Recover the amino acids of this structure.
């Protein structure tokens, strides 16, 4: 499978692996936005045998297993949430099907337990926006630290033309609700993306683009549903790759987005490939 400059993986490739990992995953399907994000990131990775790859904020993501399944690489998946430990079970289940190796552990993006320059590639797919305070900036510096010279960091984050921080009155991932609103995530603008992530990383921008809906707001009408009607989505969640191919687009001008300043849960995002020179 090619993931360099030619054709590579599709959303269906990720969806098939996801469905093979259990009935609950098959019914839930591959998330609509991940149907664009996973192939977009993967097809810019340019993996080669022997590389070490870090995926930050992996939690229950199918992305790290996909890498180890198709490439002779050493994949490390980290997350502060205890759910990450289940990925070792996924690795055991895939067993001899893996071309590479897959290792999962609890770790904080702000203090990664790896030496300087250890990884050839690092990915953070819709993850770093969930780190509270200045943790996103701390995390991007840590990711740059563990990246080897010539290595690449690929990231996606929620995007809007208005910068916003969002809080929830419940436990969010590893952040426990104790009566005060808990930070959930932030939306980046071109300016805050530069100020909070790109510039502090010290890495060179090889590619930067945006993705989202430029027509019918399918995501907010039919994918993000109120709890009372959410079970209905089980009828069509497995068709996420079809809906994503029809409604999600990669664009150079984010002002084309249908919802330029979207609500908290959004299909709008920014994508960047950052390179560590020297």
């Amino acid at each position: 499978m090619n993931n360099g400059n030619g054709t590579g993986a599709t959303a269906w490739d990720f969806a098939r692996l996801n469905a093979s990992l259990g009935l609950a995953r098959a019914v839930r399907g591959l998330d609509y936005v991940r149907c664009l994000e996973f192939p977009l990131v993967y097809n810019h990775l340019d993996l080669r045998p022997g590389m070490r790859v870090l995926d930050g904020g992996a939690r229950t993501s199918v992305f790290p297993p996909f890498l180890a399944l198709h490439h002779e690489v050493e994949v490390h998946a980290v997350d502060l949430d205890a759910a990450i430990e289940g990925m070792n079970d996924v690795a055991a289940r895939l067993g001899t099907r893996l071309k590479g190796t897959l290792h999962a552990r609890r770790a904080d993006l702000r203090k990664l337990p790896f030496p300087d320059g250890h990884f050839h590639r690092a990915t953070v797919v819709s993850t770093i926006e969930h780190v509270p305070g200045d943790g996103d900036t701390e995390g991007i510096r840590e990711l740059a630290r563990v990246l080897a010279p010539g290595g690449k960091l690929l990231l996606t984050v929620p995007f809007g033309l208005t910068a916003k921080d969002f809080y929830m009155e419940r436990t969010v991932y590893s952040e426990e609700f104790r009566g005060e609103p808990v930070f959930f995530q932030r939306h980046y603008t071109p300016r805050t993306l530069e100020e909070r992530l790109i510039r502090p990383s010290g890495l060179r921008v090889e590619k930067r683009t945006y993705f989202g809906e430029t027509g019918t707001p399918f995501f907010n009408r039919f994918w993000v549903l109120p709890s009372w009607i959410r079970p209905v989505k089980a009828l069509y969640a497995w068709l996420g790759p079809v809906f994503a191919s029809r409604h999600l687009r990669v664009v150079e001008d984010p002002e084309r987005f249908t919802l330029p300043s979207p609500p908290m849960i959004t299909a709008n995002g920014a994508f960047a490939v950052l390179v560590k020179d020297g």
Remarks:
- DSSP finds nine helices and ten strands in the chain.
- The two ends are 29 Å apart (CA to CA).
